């Protein structure tokens, strides 16, 4: 009976991923997310030749209350709320309040990054994962994480955005800025690739489960 239950679980893909309630698993997820943000700080520091010199904590809760109170419609308030940073790591410029570069930590984006990394890590730990699902999930997760980046740079003359990270990585600034309106589309493509990769992986697991039951 136990073997039959395990076979049914494998057939449905229930054992494809490790338990998501283990503390160690979420510890690795947080470590990866922190490492990604440290990598962005390192990229900005190398590109500008100046490291961070301050961390600015924003009154996030108060700002949210003000936005929700003074915005006439909720639909108008939601985009503002989603772009409100919790804090920012920045490099200041002398004699001006503007930073040379800044990394904004947005709660909504941070939570989304944690979820994406959790799905990616869980899928990666499946020892039966094929190369097709690997390419789809890895590519999709990378695209989504990029779109969740909120980096600002004075050379781009743009509010903190994912395209700034693209420009700092060496992409021509003008072309990078031209990509800014396509962020939601690119994020949707990333999520679609991840979903296709997961479906492919679950399909492979289901076929293996059926084969074991047949034996």
Would you give an account of this structure?
- Helix content is about 65%, strand content about 10%.
- With about 220 residues, the chain is α+β, with helices and mostly antiparallel strands.
- Strands 1-2-3-4 form a 4-stranded antiparallel beta sheet.
- The model is unreliable at about 1-15 (pLDDT under 50).
- About 25% of the residues are buried.
- It is built from 9 helices and 4 strands, in the order H-H-E-H-H-E-E-H-H-E-H-H-H.
- It has one domain.
**What's the helix count?**
9
Strand content: 5-15%
Strand order of the largest sheet: 1-2-3-4
Q: How would you classify the helix and strand content by structural class? A: alpha+beta
Question: Order of helices and strands, N to C?
Answer: HHEHHEEHHEHHH
Number of structural domains: 1
Low-confidence stretches: 1-16
Q: What's the mean pLDDT score?
A: 84
In percent, how helical is the residue content?
A: 55-70%
Supply Rg.
21 Å
Shape: globular
End-to-end Cα distance = 15 Å
Total strands? 4
Largest sheet: 4 strands, antiparallel
Keywords: Membrane, Transmembrane, Transmembrane helix
Transmembrane segments: 25-44, 102-123, 135-163, 175-200
What's the topology here?
Blueprint: H1 2-12, H2 23-48, E1 54-57, H3 60-70, H4 74-82, E2 87-92, E3 99-105, H5 107-124, H6 131-147, E4 151-153, H7 162-168, H8 173-178, H9 183-214
Antiparallel strand pairs: 1-2, 2-3, 3-4
State the gist of this model:
The chain crosses the membrane at residues 25-44, 102-123, 135-163, 175-200. By secondary structure, the chain is of the alpha+beta class. It has one domain (2-214).
């Amino acid at each position: 009976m136990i073997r039959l239950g395990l076979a049914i679980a494998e057939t449905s893909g229930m054992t494809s991923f490790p338990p998501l309630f283990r503390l160690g698993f979420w510890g690795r997820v947080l470590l990866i997310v922190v490492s990604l943000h440290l990598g962005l700080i390192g990229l900005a520091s190398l590109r500008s030749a100046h490291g961070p010199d301050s961390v600015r904590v924003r009154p996030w809760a108060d700002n949210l209350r003000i936005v929700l109170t003074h915005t006439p419609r909720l639909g108008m308030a939601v985009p503002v709320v989603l772009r409100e940073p919790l804090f920012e790591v920045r490099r200041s410029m002398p004699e001006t309040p503007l930073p040379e570069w800044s990394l904004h930590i947005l709660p909504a984006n941070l939570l989304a990054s944690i979820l994406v990394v959790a799905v990616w890590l869980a899928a990666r730990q499946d020892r039966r994962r094929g190369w097709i699902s690997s390419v789809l999930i890895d590519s999709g997760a990378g695209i989504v994480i990029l779109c969740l980046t909120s980096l600002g740079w004075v050379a781009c003359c743009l509010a903190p955005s994912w395209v700034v990270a693209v420009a700092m990585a060496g992409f021509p600034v003008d072309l990078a800025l031209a990509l800014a309106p396509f962020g939601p589309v690119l994020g949707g493509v990333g999520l679609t690739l991840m979903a296709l990769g997961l479906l492919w992986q679950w399909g492979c697991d289901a076929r293996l489960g059926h084969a074991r039951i047949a034996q």
